[in-house]
UniProtKB/TrEMBL annotation:
GO terms for cellular component: chromosome. Keywords: Coiled coil, Plasmid. The lineage of its organism: Bacteria, Pseudomonadati, Pseudomonadota, Alphaproteobacteria, Rhodobacterales. InterPro entries: Chromosome_partition/occlusion, HTH_ParB/Spo0J, ParB/Sulfiredoxin_sf, ParB_N. Residues 8-111 form the ParB-like N-terminal domain. This is ParB N-terminal domain-containing protein. Transmembrane segments: none annotated. One of its GO terms (biological process) is chromosome segregation.
Length: 660
């Protein structure tokens, strides 16, 4: 049976919702934000599809077309919209009063309209511009959407027809088709498509994007933005895109030429400012190629009165900034601004206290490269033919064979951080000693009798046998890794302290102590000795051979007692963190990806990585993460023992300066 619906026009004000409308129980469907596009379309194009209505109680109830009805009511109430009021009549179709399939009609209206194919939508937008002469702005107004959203659809609708046809035929995925929009030239799209599909095989969006990168540089790319002004001045061709940021500088060779020129100019400026002998440039700093280069470093100089005054000012300001940065409620922008200020001040302070020797300047140079979206300077490099094998001038350091030349992000550990790392290492060593009671007992007894019976100096100053617990200061004791603290606490809990009773006389306590088993005494002495270890870095064999050997025995790996955490990483410069990830841990791709992130994000990544190494790590990366620590914190091993010392061992009071 076929039901016919008579056409009629009904004033917007005479329309009401129909109780049989299948969306009547979903009022959110008619919220303004959900019908904004529809309202805009009706305002521009009018009502393209009549409403299905039925006469109920003197009104016309909308059985099918509830969202259009809601949009019409909004238009009627919107005084800024012309042509729509409560009296405006719109086209409808009337359902007879005796119709018994009203709910079915409403459902059919809503579910029998197939959603529009994405490619059809993209192409429809493109035709509106190409055939109908509309602009992205007029299309956006018609559909009540943002101009940028329209341009995004238009870009896909303007992809080469052959590629759109492949997507429609499901030869390639929709995402792969979209990847071709990375380059606005249909000719380039076609050439890349044919090159990638000539041998068959599955085509991926990633492969497409990589291939298009060789056909030009987008203006929004960091290199594109850096060279664009000079590129345009030289008449370089630009493939314009509807979205300006996707326009492409098509002459890749000219882009590289200009980039190298600008890098070369930056290198030359640094050469003249610092007094180096030569300057060079490379687009990407090739660490493999540069491994044979040496590097010289500035040595300490005595600042004059004016310089010392400025250093004191910088020190005071750095202390103030450090306190501000410890506020966990800081916004990222504020934190980054403080971080950049600290970085600049520390660099200024170093420049006032360090200088290159004349001999080193005469053979060293600077290379500028492009890294993390900016010019990076690699200073103090020495070409292989100019490298000296003997001890160089003040501050110089020739690379050992196979040693990779460090870059401008060289980790130099400021004095305050070095002091705190010493404290953390002492705590880890104390934990190791508490866990090796027999060895520590022997060490304690040996020191006691040797210091008394032997002639000359003490066998080691690393531990004190004077019944006094060592006080260890630390800038942020509440934020350090607690592994060593937990291990020492566990060792304490295992002690037999039944003899320790302040209500008893010392002689009675001593008698109870003597009655303990030898193993219990060893644990007590080990715990007490562990508590006296002084803050320090790895021992130097030449200065303290006893503790050098003892640390190797009880603490061959500090990571068994200590793990780097966010508190440590937060005190590292962003460049240091990226260097550690890329070079020390073998996570080069992650370092490149994180280069554009904020320091807070990088710190969080490192903290998570060390807390529980990711399942996606290779065996080599996992081993590197498990072993990494600041070099001077790890106990020197056998390989270090066999190496000849290359520099005079510093005195105790200069140890921090040496580490920093």
């Amino acid at each position: 049976m076929t039901t016919s619906f008579a056409p009629l026009t009904v004033a917007i004000g005479d329309l009401v919702p129909h109780p049989a409308n299948v969306r009547s129980n979903s009022p959110e469907t008619y919220d303004l934000e959900n019908i904004a596009h529809l309202k805009a379309s009706i305002a521009v194009l009018g009502l393209l599809q009549p409403l299905i209505v039925q006469k109920l109680d003197g009104k016309y109830a909308v059985l099918a077309g509830g969202r259009r009805h809601a949009a019409l009511k909004e238009l009627g109430a919107d005084k800024a919209t012309k042509g729509f009021t409560a009296k405006t009549k719109i086209d409808c179709r009337l359902v007879p009063d005796d119709c018994d399939v009203t709910t079915a009609l409403s459902l059919a209206e809503n579910i029998t309209q197939a959603p529009m194919n994405a490619i059809d939508e993209f192409e429809a937008f493109a035709r509106m511009m190409e055939v109908d002469g509309q602009t992205p702005e007029t299309i956006a107004k018609t559909f009540g959407t943002a101009v940028a959203a329209v341009k995004g659809r238009l870009r896909y609708g303007l992809i080469h027809p052959a590629i759109r046809a492949a997507a429609r035929a499901k030869t390639i995925t929709l995402d792969t088709m979209k990847a071709f929009a990375e380059h606005p030239s249909q000719e380039v799209q076609r050439e890349v498509y044919e090159a990638l599909t000539k041998d068959g095989g599955y085509l991926q969006a990633y492969t497409v994007r990589q291939a298009l990168k060789s056909r030009g540089v987008q203006v929004s790319d960091d290199i594109g933005a850096f060279v664009r002004e000079d590129y345009e001045a030289r008449g370089g061709a630009i493939a314009a895109d509807l979205l300006e940021e996707h326009s492409v500088l098509e002459d890749a060779a000219l882009v590289e030429t200009i980039l190298l020129e600008k890098l070369g100019a930056a290198a030359e400026e640094a050469r003249m400012r610092l007094g180096f002998a030569w300057a060079d440039a490379m687009v990407r700093y090739d660490y493999t190629t540069m491994a044979e280069y040496g590097r010289i470093y500035p040595g300490p100089v005595e600042p004059d009165e004016a310089a010392q005054k400025r250093i004191d000012e910088i020190t005071a300001e750095l202390e103030k900034l450090q306190l501000e940065m410890e506020d966990e409620g800081l916004e990222d922008d504020t934190y980054n601004a403080l971080y950049e200020r600290v970085d600049a001040l520390e660099e200024e302070a170093r420049d006032l206290q360090e200088a290159y020797s004349t001999e080193d300047l005469a053979r060293a140079g600077v290379i500028a490269s492009w890294s993390a979206g900016k010019v990076t300077l690699h200073v103090g490099l020495v070409r292989p033919e100019d490298n000296v094998k003997e001890e160089g001038a003040r501050g110089s350091l020739a690379n050992m064979p196979g040693e990779e030349a460090p870059d401008a992000g060289e980790i130099s550990y400021p004095a305050s951080l070095a002091e705190d790392l010493k404290t953390e290492r002492a705590m880890a060593l104390g934990a190791a000693m508490a866990l090796h009671p027999e060895a520590t007992l022997d060490l304690t007894f040996f020191k006691l009798v040797s210091d008394v019976l032997a002639s000359g100096m003490s066998v080691t100053q690393a531990i004190k046998v004077e019944a006094r617990k060592e006080y260890r200061s630390h800038a942020t004791m509440d934020k350090i890794d607690e592994t060593s603290l937990e291990q020492v606490a566990a060792a304490h809990d295992a002690l037999d302290l039944s003899w320790l009773d302040d209500t008893r006389a010392p002689a009675d306590q001593f008698a109870a102590f003597r009655a303990l088993e030898a193993g219990e005494k060893a644990r007590l002495v080990a715990y007490a000795t562990a508590s006296t270890t002084q803050s320090c870095f790895a021992r130097d064999r030449q200065r303290d051979s006893l503790m050098h050997a003892f640390e190797i025995e009880v603490m061959p790996d500090i990571r068994a007692h200590w793990t780097p955490n966010a508190a440590l990483f937060n005190r590292f410069k962003k460049a240091w963190l990226l260097k550690i990830l890329g070079e020390d841990l073998g996570l080069a791709q992650e370092a490149v990806t994180l280069a554009s992130s904020s320091k807070k994000e990088i710190v969080a990544f490192c903290d998570k990585l060390f807390a529980e190494p990711f399942a996606t790590l290779t065996d080599a990366q996992r081993a590197a993460v498990a072993a990494w620590c600041p070099p001077m914190m790890q106990t020197a091993g056998v390989a270090f023992d066999e190496a000849e010392p290359t520099a005079e061992t510093p005195e105790p009071d200069s140890e921090v300066a040496q580490a920093a």
